[in-house]
Amino acid sequence: MNLAYTMAPGRGDTDLILFKLANALAARGLRCCGTVQINSERGDTGPCDMDVRVLPDGPILRISQDLGRDSHGCRLDPAALETAVGLVSASLEKGADVLIVNKFGKHEAEGRGFRTVIADALSYGIPVIVGVNALNLPAFHEFSQSLAVGLPCETNTLADWVAGLESGCVHAA
């Protein structure tokens, strides 16, 4: 199974590394599919805005909701996330060399979100790299049946993993 996950200790670090990875792989001529997250600090000192860029050149979608400065609830906009899932699924059908999913989050842990897209990519033989946080790592291991390889959250290491896969594992449209 060509499934890898990565984690970084700092808030937003995995997002930044996966964003750099997508750019590095695209520069090598690989067809990247999936999402990378872009966090934007807010001037009102509230929590950052969370956007995802649908790869390779799809739209940027705001996936966070503004619930107010004092809110402590989940800010994820589930409708925006499912829009991203639909766009990635349609893009995956056209063929890809690698699927990058910015996060195996709460929705994926509960059986929604990008789970089906990840499974589809793997069934096509497309390598998948997923960002995971410690909270959702047990659910990710259950989903992957502990067959995913954990990789350091470093752009070069992740890019080398993709480059090292056999060319026969790539799905062409």
> Distance N terminus to C terminus?
20 Å
* Residue share in β-strands: 15-25%
Biggest pleated-sheet summary: 7 strands, mixed
Average pLDDT reading: 86
Give the % helix. Answer: 25-40%
Strand order of the largest sheet: 4-3-2-5-6-1-7
What is the gyration radius calculated from CA atoms? 15 Å
The number of distinct helices, counting runs of at least 4 residues, comes to 6
Shape: globular
Count the beta strands: 7
Low-confidence stretches: 166-173
Structural class: alpha/beta
Helix-strand pattern: EHEEEHEHHEHEH
Structure explained in plain terms:
There is one protein chain. This protein has a seven-stranded mixed sheet with strand order 4-3-2-5-6-1-7, with helices on both faces. The two termini are 20 Å apart. The chain has 173 residues and is α/β, with parallel strands linked by helices. Helices cover 36% and strands 23% of the residues. Helix 1 packs across helix 6 (155-164). The chain has helices spanning 13-27, 78-93, 106-109, 115-124, 137-143, 155-164, and strands at residues 3-7, 32-40, 49-55, 60-62, 98-104, 128-132, 149-152. The protein is built from six helices and seven strands; from the N terminus they run E-H-E-E-E-H-E-H-H-E-H-E-H. The protein is globular.
